[in-house]
Amino acid sequence: MSDERENLSYELFGTAMRDLATAIADDGFEPDMILSIARGGLFVAGGLGYALDVKNLHVMNVEFYTGVGTTLDMPVMLPPVPNVVDLSSKKVLVADDVADTGKTLKLVHDFCAEHVAEVRSAVIYEKPQSLVKCEYVWKHTDQWINFPWSVLPPVVTRPDQVRDA
Fold first, then answer.
1. I want to staple 115 with a disulfide (CB 3.0 to 4.6 A). Which of 81, 84, 85, 133 is the partner?
2. What DSSP letter does each residue of 67-81 carry, written as one string?
3. What is the pLDDT, as a whole number, of residue 165?
4. What PANTHER family does the record point to (predicted)?
């Protein structure tokens, strides 16, 4: 991994959300709901929700990264897992900040694909090695990304929590 990094500011994040929303709208995709992958996807889902006028937002908690460049062997869905009844017959947009390995997105995409009418994914960044090629990507990169919400250490360190990047 290179020492060079992508640096996303909050201002540039706003630009990314408008660009992604425009690409989704121009494509004619009208999601019934946006499913965010917590934690980084929460910001993306909120931004896209406002830009696309979608109020039906859900959260899926997935644990995978344990530090910069370190992961669990496989991503794990954490409770509560969305009720598939809530997803049936819906067009779902899965939102995350980055498709790095793509393992997290694949887990969520595969979960949705069995229960929804249509599923598509939107990310700010997609890396070349991602297992999932997202329909909507703001920027492709092979660098580590400094997101404005995670570049600084936590104000409080909770010893019972696994640290992630």
1. 84
2. ETTEEEEEEEEESSP
3. 46
4. HYPOXANTHINE PHOSPHORIBOSYLTRANSFERASE (PTHR43363), HYPOXANTHINE-GUANINE PHOSPHORIBOSYLTRANSFERASE (PTHR43363:SF1)
CA within 13 Å, CB half, 18: 5
Decide: helix, strand or coil at residue 20.
helix
Is residue 40 within 8 A of residue 145, CB to CB? The reply is: no
Locate 67 and state its tokens: 């530090």
> What pLDDT, in 10s, does the model give residues 35-80?
999 889 999 999 999 999 999 998 988 775 555 565 556 666 666 6
Q: Which stretches of the chain drop beneath a pLDDT of 50?
A: 1, 164-165
Q: Tell me the C-alpha to C-alpha distance, in Å, between residue 117 and each of 8, 60, 113, 154.
A: 33, 18, 8, 39
The predicted pLDDT at position 84 comes to 62
Is the Cα torsion angle 41, 66, 126, 7 positive or negative in sign?
positive
d(CA 98, CA 47): 15
Query: Helix, strand or coil for residue 148?
Result: coil
- Distance of alpha carbon 97 from alpha carbon 102, whole angstroms: 11
Quick one: which of 21, 17, 32 has its CA closest to 118? 32
Tokens matching residue 24: 């989704």
Strand segments, DSSP code E, in 8-51 are: 33-38
Class of domain 5-146: alpha beta
